[in-house]
Specification:
Layout (H helix, E strand, L loop, with lengths): L4 H5 L14 H4 L49 H13 L8 H17 L9 E5 L5 H8 L3 E6 L2 H10 L4 E4 L12 E6 L10 H11 E12 L4 H11 L10 H9 L5 E4 L3 E4 L3 H10 L2 E9 L18 H16 L4 H6 L2 E8 L5
Parallel strand pairs: 1-2, 1-4, 2-3, 4-5
Antiparallel strand pairs: 5-9, 6-7, 8-9
Helix pairs in contact: 8-9
Length: about 350
């Protein structure tokens, strides 16, 4: 199916604050980068030392804990920094590289299948971490009354120009400005949880504003993944692949018992999640995972840094075309979910008991 003109105009945009984290040209501009302030001492990091008893995977949802130093009335330090970062990126935010072209082509296929068209009587959908309105445009095409939130005023300005009929709000996913049960469907794609200060609170907020029986489509940066293995290999060999991550940080991202925050140059510490950790946060928010897909699994046979450029060399482009075709065919399999770079989960909020 060919997308509508509104979607065609959005094909080079992204859905949330996860666009181009490894764009080589952008990373070479020191003035464009932002150093994220560290978490205040009152909020200890979520990771544990390698090899310690605490680093082993917890066995119950309650064992997964994330803390946030800010009150609900104001944005967290991390959220404020992310807003500044993506305000600066707004003019070039809609430029996708091959890595993201594949990611969003498959994500949109999943969205059409998992969320689908709005019900005959109409339905209200939230694009959480909407960026420039990529998923909002698709939701509108599917007949939904689309609403979007993002922390970046610059990105929202683009979204409002793109979709003047949609309702966009400047807000954090951790403190959504909506009443309980407001939405019939929620899409939170583009690894929005990568950037929040308190992932558990963000998921709880998504669950709060979703009506009973409503659906949530959530996309997160996943661990373990083949790309984390490439990150570690590169770090141990002088970083020829240009990930810019220290070997110890890459190792902790692979082995830590709780969700680690991996320090990326120019972006600060960013969350990575296992499927088990995501399921625990969803359960705590009253949501149940009903289906999952693993994206960028086969394509991770190539280091992602090779694909973060606007044009690929001919041989690399041919290899990537073949891999992305296979990648898209196996996204629903157990191996894909186990080692994918992006984990996409469809969850539902339970209906109240009679």
């Amino acid at each position: 199916m060919r997308p509508s003109p509104s979607i065609m105009r959005c094909q080079t945009s992204n859905a949330s604050p996860s666009l181009r984290p490894w764009n080589a040209e952008w990373r070479r501009r020191p003035s464009s980068r932002l150093t994220v302030s560290p978490r205040p001492p009152s909020s200890p990091p979520a990771t544990s030392p390698i090899g310690s008893r605490a680093a082993r995977a917890p066995t119950s949802p309650a064992a997964f804990s994330f803390t946030c130093a800010s009150s609900p009335a104001r944005l967290c330090v991390m959220t404020s920094a992310v807003a500044q970062l993506f305000d600066a990126m707004a003019p070039t935010y809609d430029e996708l590289e091959p890595w993201y072209e594949h990611l969003y082509a498959v994500l949109h296929r999943i969205l059409r299948e998992a969320i689908g068209r709005a019900p005959a009587g109409g339905g209200r959908a939230l694009d959480a971490g909407c960026g420039t309105g990529f998923q909002s445009a698709l939701l509108t095409e599917l007949g939904w009354d689309a609403h979007g939130v993002d922390v970046s005023a610059g990105l929202l300005a683009v979204a409002r120009r793109r979709l003047p009929g949609a309702a966009f709000a400047l807000a954090s996913v951790e403190t959504l400005p909506y009443p309980d049960g407001r939405f019939d469907a929620i899409v939170c794609c583009g690894s929005t949880l990568w950037f929040v200060d308190d992932p558990a609170r963000a998921v709880a907020e998504l669950g709060r504003v979703l009506r009973p029986g409503g659906r949530l489509l959530l996309d997160c940066e996943h661990r373990p993944s083949l790309d984390l293995a490439w990150t570690l290999v590169s770090a141990l060999t002088g970083d020829p692949l240009g990930y810019g991550v220290k070997a110890g940080d890459a190792w902790r991202a692979i082995t830590a018992g709780q969700s680690p925050r991996l320090p990326y140059p120019g972006y600060g510490p960013l969350w990575l999640f296992s499927r088990r950790e995501l399921a625990a946060m969803l359960a705590a928010a009253g949501l149940t995972s009903v289906r999952a897909w693993g994206l960028h699994n086969v394509t991770n046979l190539l280091p992602s840094t090779l694909l973060h450029r606007q044009r690929l060399p001919r041989t690399l482009a041919a290899a990537f075309r073949a891999l992305r075709h296979l990648d898209a065919r196996v996204i629903g399999t157990a191996p894909a979910r186990a080692f994918a770079n992006n984990l996409v989960i469809l969850a539902r909020r339970a209906q109240p008991s009679a």
